[in-house]
Write a structure and sequence with these properties.
This protein has about 140 residues and is mainly α. It has one domain. It contains six helices and no strands. It starts with 5 loop residues before the first helix and ends in a 5-residue tail after the last helix.
Length: about 140
Amino acid sequence: MLNKNPIIKGTIILTIASLLSRIIGFLYRIFLSNLIGAKGMGVFQLIFPVLVFCIALSCGGVQIAVSRFVAESKSRKECFLVLISSIIMSLSLSFITLGVLYFCAEPVSLFIIKNKSCTELLKYASFTIPLALFTPA
């Protein structure tokens, strides 16, 4: 039955992958809370939305655009050019976003998060933005 209908097979695979991802995320949160404690988790929850916003600025929508352009391309060379140009564009945007967040960490922590102790953590977290380019959505 699964070989006849690829939609059902794909749905089952995606459901299992999503379930495993949620379980791993849940276990990671437990590990992280034991490692850094309640106060550390609170600070992490404060800086995380800012970090996610910066990641969305630097590489949000690129995966969908690459999928579309690759589907429309006629040759492997065009696919490769789409891939390389998207990586270059996303890396450039991510390094710009890294610089902006790093150098504006104090105003962000004071006026947006409203917690001065987040300044150093935002600076450290800014270095993860280019690495987020290579993670699946």
